[in-house]
Amino acid sequence: MKIDNFFSELKRRNVYKVAVAYAVVGWLLVQVATQVFPFLEIPNWIVRLVIALVAIGFPIALIIAWAFEATPEGIKRTEVADAAGQRSLGGAWIYIVLVGAFVSLGLFFLGRYTAGNATPRHDARPARTEAATATPQKSIAVLPLLNEGGDPGDEYFSDGLSEELIAALGQIRNLKVIGRSSSFRFKDRKEEPKTIAEKLGVSTLLEGTVRKQGNKVRIVAELINAADGTELWSRIFDRELKDIFAVQTEIAQAVAASLELTLLGNKDMTATNASTQNVEAHNAYLQGHFYFARRNTEDYRKAINFFDQAIRIDPDYALAYAERAEAWTFIGDLSPEQKKEAWAAAKRDAEKAVAVGPNLAEAHAALGWVRFFSEWKFTEGLAELKRAKELAPANATANDLLARVLIYVNQLAEAEKLARQAIELDPLAYLARGNLARILLAEGKLDEADSEARKSAELQPTGAGSHRWQVVVAVLRGDGEGALREAQLEPNEGYRRLELALAHYARGNQAAADAALADMVANDRNLLAYQIAEVYAWRGETDKAFVWLQISYDNHDTGILSLLIDPLMRGLRSDPLYKSMVEKVGLPTPL
User: Fold this and answer.
1) What is the pLDDT of residue 104?
2) C-beta separation of 155 from 144 below 8 A
3) d(CA 381, CA 160)
4) In the chain, which end has fewer C-beta atoms inside a 10 angstrom radius, N or C?
5) Average pLDDT in the 178-198 region?
């Protein structure tokens, strides 16, 4: 067939008309998919599917137009229609093209206009975290594995496995892994994966189930693409419970390797999970960790009992020593009558943890915290915490602890940097938010400090001292009424007395301020001696402030570690006794 005859035949068979009509209608479908589907929250993969089908359908439509003809009597092959003298009615396609073109153009310009002129929404929903505003491609959150065995007593096992996966994946270079505090907020999850991922600032989610029955365990793990909720892969692990360590290792390696292949594009699997090889010791540790994570004195004691069991079974269990050291540290701080014995036990456990686990980040973090927080050996403590960060740079806890101690030695810029890194890795951790608020307060960034303090209180409304920094910010601003409103919201009795003493003084209500301070002295001298000194210092009663600072020092009250950076103590800084007290504590000499 000559080329001229070919084009004439295309025209005679209405192929040109079909091509134009298909292009217009196809463009209409693409505009609907790209402009309308997102408003209906239709997954992105459906949008991509529509575009692909439109593209694939174009050559198919041309082939059909060549081979068939629409006649008044229906669809017939072109040769048959020609022989019968039946041709298609030529006007209908024009209307299709015109209508499709107008609708397509309308959707196109509507999309361009709304995209170019959209303004941020300011509604009543909680503000997204910094991490969620720019989601890294190489990022994941491990949602708590669901306990499907039906026995609530096995909850510690599913929770412990979830945390071990977080720790294992955290060893993968260039992979952002969200910390426990944030991930475990979705333990009883009812939200869509996309919503959870937006709140955590990640592109993928790892979720699954655990069923432990008798000596058998089944673990199902699924990797979810957060953008559209699609499953990237899933695996089932059926094992005997006596092989739990092989299961732990297999899951950690399989998940880490697959994620790194998926997210990083290579198979350099660096995550490992070596703790103990004894099933009973590991089981006792998981139970202890379950109670340790509840963060109160009673549960710290329960945790220690289980850690004791784990260590009796395996005397070289470094992770159990490390967490028992932390538990003893917190018990000593919360129970003055046990402080000396508890901190001595914490010291022994932390040193043992490093001895048997020299490359375990948690061991160095525990020893660093003990050295700094309870022994006041600041240089040694900093060195250990920096070593922990070197061993696990993506560990949210290591960043948070290091930020907490750097503020005490007045290294505020570095402390702020690490605190923000900790929040990026654990955006819903209220302690990390509160620590950042404290650092910003010490730097004099009152607006930012107030914002972070409010986020912390929103995340944990019942936390002790959850309104402390808001009160201090208001007092520094001279806003007595604002300080009082915040103080009245404080859930902890001891901190509420402190906050009321400051707020009433800021309001100029001397009688109420004196009453609140007297209440503090009567009830909180053992736990809050430093905070009593703070109130006297802010009131300008210098002699009494130094009396209570001495009591705080004699009690080995950890509050006194704030001496260098506490804005409520600024009235004492020119006094020689202040410099003397700083030197006695062992803090760096103030400029």
Assistant:
1) 53
2) no
3) 28
4) C
5) 84
231-240 and 216-225 strand pairing: antiparallel
Residue 59 has pLDDT above 90, yes or no: no
Distance CA 40, CA 420 (A): 35
Per-residue three-class SS string for 509-540: CHHHHHHHHHHHHHHCCCCCHHHHHHHHHHHC
Which residues are bridge partners to 219 per DSSP? Answer: 210, 237
In 3D space, the residue among 119, 125, 167, 118 whose CA is nearest the CA of residue 142 turns out to be 167
Instruction: Assess whether pLDDT exceeds 80 at residue 9.
Output: no
Model confidence pLDDT, tens digit, residues 306-316: 999 999 999 99
| Residue among 244, 295, 133, 148 at smallest CA distance from 198 | 133
- Mean pLDDT for the chain overall: 80
Tens-digit pLDDT profile for residues 360-375: 888 999 999 999 999 9
Lowest mean pLDDT among 76-90, 410-424, 503-517, 576-590: 76-90
- For residue 414, how many C-alpha atoms fall within 13 Å in the half-sphere facing its CB? 13
**How much is the pTM?**
0.69
Residue type, 115: A
Contact between 49 and 37 under an 8 Å Cβ cutoff? The reply is: no
**Token match 């620590």: residue?**
435
Report how far Cα 287 is from the mean position of its chain's Cα atoms: 24
Nearest to 243 by CA among 217, 225, 264, 274: 217
| 85-90 contacts, C-beta under 8 A, 24 or more apart | 88/14, 90/14, 90/17
Q: Contacts by 382-386 with C-beta closer than 8 Å and gap 24+?
A: 382/406, 382/409, 384/354
Three-state DSSP state, 3 = helix
DSSP states along 205-220:
EEEEEEEEETTEEEEE
The H or E element that residue 417 is part of is helix 412-425
Distance, in Å, from the CA atom of 473 to the CA atom of 483, rounded to the nearest integer, reads 8
Q: How many other β-carbons are positioned within 10 Å of the β-carbon of residue 567?
A: 19
Query: How far is Cα 307 from Cα 429, in angstroms, rounded to an integer?
Result: 25
Q: What pLDDT, on a 0 to 100 scale, did the predictor assign at position 222?
A: 86
Give mean pLDDT, residues 31-38: 62
Phi, psi of 242 (to 5 degrees): -65, -15
Helix 542-554, helix 576-585: angle, nearest 10: 10
The alpha helices in 127-243, defined as continuous H runs, are: 130-133, 155-169, 180-183, 193-200
- The distance of Cα 398 from the centroid of its chain, to the nearest Å, equals 14
